[in-house]
Amino acid sequence: MNFMQKQDASSRNAVRPGRPRSVATQEAILAASLRLTERVGYAQLTIEGIAAEAGVGKQTVYRWWPSKAAVVLEAFARDARAVVKVRVTGNLEIDLEKFLIAAYRRLTGPRGVVFRSLLSEALINSDFAQQFYDEYLQSRVDDLKTVLSSGANEAEGFEVPAELVEMIYGAIWYRMATNQKLTPAAARQVAAAAVNLLRET
Fold first, then answer.
1. Which residue in 89, 90, 144, 176 has the most C-beta neighbors within 10 A?
2. pLDDT digits (tens, 9 = 90+) for 138-151
3. How distant is the alpha carbon of residue 31 from its chain centre?
4. How far is CA 144 from CA 64, 81, 176, in A?
5. What is the pLDDT of residue 199?
6. What would the pLDDT profile of 147-170 be if each residue is shown by its tens digit?
7. What string of H, E and C letters represents the secondary structure of the chain?
């Protein structure tokens, strides 16, 4: 599956019915899912463990989420929206370089364990892959397009090529997969190459 392309909307999971969420209980469950994933790893994570960590019954978790993957994904996506900020200064190469470094640091920090777990789940579960794209990757793609659009061709109807977005995120994920650091120099080279390609589009 190509995560950078939207999937058919008909394949999306239906919204799970249930009682309206208690905000405090919801926050406790989401926070617990992130803490436990980082502490014990995704493979050892269970709904029962999340419930115990949050101080609720497991049926409370199941009432709102169908699986541990769904809980962790919502928690991770919400956390990303709160933490990851897009800054556009007018200097595209510098903005893109900073975006790359910030994204890499986040995904190789404590939250990196969560990201790799969700990505692995998406690779083996096509239904979850769609949810992963809709709830997390789409917003990250949009953030990168915002940065790239600041220096793009201003012709009416111009869109940032999906292949360029894939290339930039690929530079991050390849280094994660091979345990290589994305140094400032490497980020600068990727940013410069991306800007050159964008201007040739």
1. 144
2. 999 999 998 998 86
3. 17
4. 31, 13, 18
5. 82
6. 998 866 554 556 888 999 999 999
7. CCCCCCCCHHHCCCCCCCCCCCHHHHHHHHHHHHHHHHHHCCCCCCHHHHHHHHCCCHHHHHHHCCCHHHHHHHHHHHHHHHHCCCCCCCCHHHHHHHHHHHHHHHHHCHHHHHHHHHHHHHHHCHHHHHHHHHHHHHHHHHHHHHHHHCCCCCCCCCCCCHHHHHHHHHHHHHHHHCCCCCCHHHHHHHHHHHHHHHHHC
Token digits of residue 2: 């190509």
pLDDT for 14 equals 41
Residue among 45, 39, 29 at smallest CA distance from 118: 45
Q: Is residue 144 a contact partner of residue 80, using CB atoms and an 8 Å limit?
A: no
On whether the CB atoms of residues 161 and 115 are closer than 8 A, the answer is no
The mean pLDDT value for 76-89 works out to 84
Which residue segments constitute the domains of the chain, with CATH numbers given?
Answer: 21-77 (1.10.10.60), 83-200 (1.10.357.10)
**pLDDT at residue 20 in the model:** 56
| pLDDT tens sequence across 172-194 | 999 988 989 999 999 999 999 99
Both tokens of 95, joined, read 């903005």
Looking up tokens 């690929």 gives: 170
Contact between residue 107 and residue 55 where contact means Cβ atoms under 8 Å apart: no
